[in-house]
């Protein structure tokens, strides 16, 4: 059925990965890293802007999401890091890449940068996960063996889709953000992958990873929606403290995915950063 789907597929060690690669072949490479459960459409308002700016842009679905395979294995940082490494190798991308990650993709991007510093040029984090002290009661319950399977089987459809709307401050402006999420839920193995990722612990207590990457001599950009209800703006203080000298932007009137909700504001910030263009309105925190 893959031939009827948009994008491309490539076989890696744990199965097929769904991806899209665009932009000039000689452009600097940018890889876009998705969040906890959302497929690559998370970057629908980012991908074309970066391509137009002259970058070679890669986006893909994590295993267990979108149209990538759903192997029956543990879904955690090791799997996702391996998927990124193998995808770059398979596409013959050898030079250092610029990495942009949102939400869980933020901590996965940071882990990738920590494990493979030679593969990363610049790092961009958008409302990144990994620093929350407490998860919601529902997510904590889902981490319990058997109880989590019962919850997601009986009520998963009822809270996953409405939860996506909560990523946006104004979900009515982009109704497709929720509707595009639904098809992947019908593919066997999606809920199992979500539970496994939640139980991997990647969403919490990742201070050490941020601290190590903060010591790397790389340019870093942090972007945060001021109205984020998933990972509150206050968490940005902790991330900034662990990434000394990070270039920081609050995005007013935006939720958890400010690049999707306000691309006309966020895209120029990222493009300027990637191109080493100074920005007079940048708010920089020094610790």
Percentage beta strand: 15-25%
Instruction: Average the pLDDT over all residues and give the rounded result.
Output: 94
Taking the sheet with the most strands, its summary is: 9 strands, mixed
Oligomer: single chain
What sort of overall outline do the alpha carbons produce when their principal axes are compared? globular
Terminal-residue CA separation: 52 Å
Task: Give the low-confidence spans.
Answer: 281-287
How many beta strands in the DSSP annotation? 9
Global Rg: 18 Å
| Structure annotation, total helices | 11
Going by helix content, strand content and strand pairing, the class is: alpha/beta
Element-by-element helix/strand order: EEEHEHEHEHHHHHEHEHHE
Describe this entry's structure for a reader:
- By secondary structure, this protein is an alpha/beta fold.
- 36% of the residues lie in helices and 17% in strands.
- It has 11 helices and 9 strands.
- The protein has helices spanning 47-52, 77-90, 104-115, 137-142, 147-165, 176-179, 190-199, 207-214, 235-242, 258-261, 263-274, and strands at residues 8-12, 15-22, 29-33, 56-60, 97-102, 120-126, 220-225, 247-251, 283-284.
- It has a 9-stranded mixed β-sheet, sandwiched between helices.
- Helix 2 packs across helix 3 and helix 3 (104-115) crosses helix 8.
- The radius of gyration is 18 Å and the shape is globular.
- Mean pLDDT is 94; it is low at 281-287.
């Amino acid at each position: 059925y893959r031939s009827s789907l948009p994008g491309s597929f490539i076989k890696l060690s744990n199965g097929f990965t769904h991806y899209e690669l665009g932009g000039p072949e000689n452009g600097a490479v940018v890889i876009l890293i998705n969040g906890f459960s959302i497929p690559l459409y998370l970057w629908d308002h980012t991908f074309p802007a970066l391509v137009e700016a002259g970058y070679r842009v890669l986006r893909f679905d994590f295993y267990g999401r979108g149209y990538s395979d759903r192997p029956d294995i543990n879904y955690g940082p090791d799997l996702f890091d391996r998927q990124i490494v193998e995808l770059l190798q398979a596409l013959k991308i050898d030079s250092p890449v610029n990495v942009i990650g949102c939400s869980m993709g933020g901590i996965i991007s940071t882990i990738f940068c920590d494990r493979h510093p030679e593969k990363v040029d610049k790092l961009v984090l958008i409302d990144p996960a990994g620093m929350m002290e407490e998860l919601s009661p529902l997510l904590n319950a889902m981490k319990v063996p058997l109880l989590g399977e019962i919850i997601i089987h009986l009520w998963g459809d009822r809270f996953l889709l409405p939860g996506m709307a909560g990523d946006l401050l104004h979900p009515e402006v982009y109704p497709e953000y929720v509707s595009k999420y639904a098809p992947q839920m019908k593919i066997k193995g999606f809920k199992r992958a979500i539970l496994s990722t939640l139980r991997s612990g990647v969403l919490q207590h990742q201070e050490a990873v941020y601290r190590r990457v903060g010591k790397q001599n790389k340019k870093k950009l942090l972007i945060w929606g001021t109205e984020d209800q998933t990972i509150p703006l206050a968490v940005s203080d902790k991330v900034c403290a662990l990434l000394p000298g990070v270039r920081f932007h609050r995005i007013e009137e935006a939720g958890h995915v400010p690049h999707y909700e306000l691309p006309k504001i966020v895209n120029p910030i990222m493009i300027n950063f990637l191109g080493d263009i100074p920005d007079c309105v940048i708010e920089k925190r020094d610790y």
